[in-house]
Design goal:
This protein has ten helices and no strands. Helix 2 runs antiparallel to helix 3. It has about 260 residues and is mainly alpha-helical. The longest helix has 24 residues. Helix content is about 80%, strand content about 0%. The chain starts with 7 loop residues before the first helix and ends with a helix.
């Protein structure tokens, strides 16, 4: 995985070559469902690598393009849960990018649509672990966007979003503690919740929570995040993106001490 190794340029080059190949094949087989799906998935992946580079404007362009492709595919097979879930999660990606380029209200609308769709799909297929994982990510991305907005009152919604993500991720992590992806997600949930709690207006996160208790809750979640990241590093599971997040979390934890 180029992105996990920190080589986003290599990842983009690989994805562009793949897109070029798919485009050529579509010239011969324009109605191939597998090729169209590959085009949509690769375009979404392109956006995710641009996200990793912090190029939110271009990532948004790719996500919008991927969304149109998923919509086209879903219209041809409306009962296909896999296509519907890719469509829904792409809405979440768009919501994340919109927040980063300052389109906060549009971001919130996309996040709400993504969560509503993924919640409905999960109810239809409760044994689908991928859907549960994507729903947790959608909640976390919504929490991130709420925090990114800088609105103090939005921190209350962010606390709820991260708590919903944890309600899904913690049981999955207990079932498979060696899974790197779920541990990474859990650390992100903890750090997000800690950051949101630290920004919540006094008394509004929970009616009985005094400022000191709220601060301690925030610090506890940040320490949980730090511990997960450090354990992953100790087991040689670290990557450049993880190290970047660990640096950020360690700085937050130092403020607690």
């Amino acid at each position: 995985n180029f992105t996990n190794l920190g080589d986003t340029a290599g990842a983009l080059g690989h994805l562009q070559r793949l897109l070029d190949l798919i485009t050529r094949r579509l010239g011969v087989e324009p109605n191939s469902g597998s090729l169209l799906e590959g085009q949509a998935y690769t375009t979404k992946s392109f956006g995710e690598v641009l996200t990793a580079r912090g190029d939110w404007t271009q990532a948004l362009v790719r996500y919008d393009e991927a969304l149109r492709l998923w919509q086209r595919l879903a219209e041809t097979d409306p009962r296909n849960v896999r296509l519907a879930s890719h469509l829904a999660y792409t809405l979440s990606n768009i919501g994340e990018a919109l927040a980063e380029v300052g389109r906060i209200d549009d971001s919130f609308r996309h996040h709400r649509r993504a969560i509503a769709r993924l919640t409905a799909l999960s109810a239809m297929d409760p044994g689908n672990s991928m859907l549960r994982t994507w729903l947790a990510r959608a909640y976390r991305k919504h929490g991130d966007s709420l925090v990114t907005s800088g609105r103090r009152v939005a921190a209350i919604g962010a606390v709820r979003a991260y708590t919903q993500a944890l309600a899904i991720d913690e049981p999955i992590a207990r079932g498979d503690p060696s899974d790197m992806d779920i541990r990474f997600a859990l650390a992100a949930d903890y750090s997000g919740l800690g950051a949101a709690l630290s920004r919540t207006p006094p008394g509004s996160a929970r009616a009985s929570m005094v400022d000191a208790r709220q601060h301690e809750q925030a610090c506890m979640r940040l320490r949980q995040s730090r511990d997960v990241y450090l354990d992953m590093r100790a087991h040689k599971l670290s990557t450049p993106p993880l190290e970047k997040l660990l640096t950020k979390v360690l700085a937050e934890v130092r403020r607690c001490e």
